[in-house]
Design a protein that fits this description.
Length: 292
């Protein structure tokens, strides 16, 4: 049923209180998110899709949300399976969530501002992508990069110099079979991977990575997986996040990683970028892209 002007003013105030509680403020994208939330919520109410009051009542009660403790475990889910049954049964919320999911801005990824709507005790943070129970959460879009080394700790282009020094200019970890084989043919001593990684990943313990790569460097998939898993663990150490969430809006898939040592079955694919060339990425050389 369509609400009155006074009712809508009250709804807007409730929205502001709710989103402030969830940390959605202090950022241009967050301010736009709040405006969009209000506009679409009232629009859906006014056009008879459902009740704005009912939707707000559901969101204001944390028992209607998914317990954020789920983020302490690794999982791969359909994004909408992360939404509680109570919220999924509310037509207005589901339409609203689908729209707000795409809300993003400078430094704010898709889905980052929408997660606080569905996870109890979870909030958006300007210092990190999200927080729950005092724990830092990293939120990334599908295909985003893992950085094993702090930005600025090594000079850009160091990986190209190392490729010339150790591999006659060939590039490790290439997906293209011919390019991968070209690199393999340049490896005269697999022990050289230790020095290569030590110079590339400054400040990291590369002993285990080097030993693993020595055993699998002729297998492209195993090689990329070894470097990807290393990068994931180091990224957690460098950035200090408790868990990292990857969201693929197109496929509506979400992957959460809390335990970086147990990621089998999550369907992750790692693509090491062991060449700088004309790459303009701001992060340090040797980063790895991850897709779900």
């Amino acid at each position: 049923m369509k609400g009155s002007k006074n009712n809508y003013i009250q709804i807007e105030k409730r929205v502001e209180i709710l989103l402030q509680k969830r940390g959605i403020s202090g950022h241009v994208a967050a301010e736009r998110f709040v405006k969009d939330f209000k506009a679409y919520l009232i629009y859906f109410d006014a056009t008879g899709v459902g009740s704005a009051d009912t939707t707000m009542s559901l969101l204001e009660n944390d028992s209607n949300l998914t317990d954020s403790n789920i983020l302490n475990t690794n999982f791969r889910k359909n994004l909408f399976d992360l939404i509680s049954v109570n919220l999924r049964n509310d037509t207005v919320f589901m339409k609203l969530f689908s729209i707000l999911l795409d809300n993003n801005g400078k430094g704010i990824g898709q889905g980052e501002l929408a997660l606080p709507l569905i996870l109890a005790g979870y909030s958006f943070s300007n210092d990190s992508d999200g927080m729950f129970d005092g724990k830092k959460v990293e939120v990334k879009k599908n295909g985003a990069s893992l950085k094993p080394v702090e930005t600025g700790l090594t000079e850009k282009g160091i990986v190209d110099k190392l490729n010339k020094e150790y591999w006659n200019g060939t590039v490790p970890g290439k997906i293209n079979k011919k390019l991968f084989q070209k690199h393999i043919s340049s490896v005269t001593n697999p022990d050289d991977y230790f020095s290569y990684f030590k110079n590339l990943y400054v400040g990291c313990d590369v002993s285990a990575l080097s030993e693993e790569v020595k055993k699998c460097y002729t297998d492209a998939n195993k090689f990329c997986d070894a470097i990807g898993k290393f990068a994931l663990r180091e990224y957690q150490r460098v950035d200090g996040w408790h868990n990292i969430i990857y969201i693929d809006n197109e496929k509506q898939i979400v992957v959460n990683i809390a335990d970086t040592n147990d990621i089998e079955g999550l369907g992750l694919k790692f693509s090491p970028k062991l060449s700088r060339c004309k790459d303009t990425q701001a992060i340090s050389d040797g980063y790895v892209n991850i897709s779900i």
